[in-house]
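Lab notebook, bench 4. Still working through the backlog of constructs that have no structural model yet. Next entry is a single chain of 65 residues. Request: give me the structure tokens for it.
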Amino acid sequence: MSLSEKAAELYMGEKGLLFWLNKFAYASIFIVIGGWIVFRFVGPALNLYQLDAPPLPPSSIFKGS
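Model written out:
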């Protein structure tokens, strides 16, 4: 195996760099969503802190144009 083939295998192989970067990016989506849920709902529910404004009611979000 030449040096360029080894480099390509490390980069694009079955468990190469692209595999691990994709795995990290996919996991980080769930970490960010979970962190937002904890910050937005769990923290105020446990009275750890209060947000400046209460959640908007659905009628104000989905009102017609």
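Notes after review: Residues 3-61 form one domain. The helical segments are 3-12, 17-45, 58-61. Flag for follow-up if needed.
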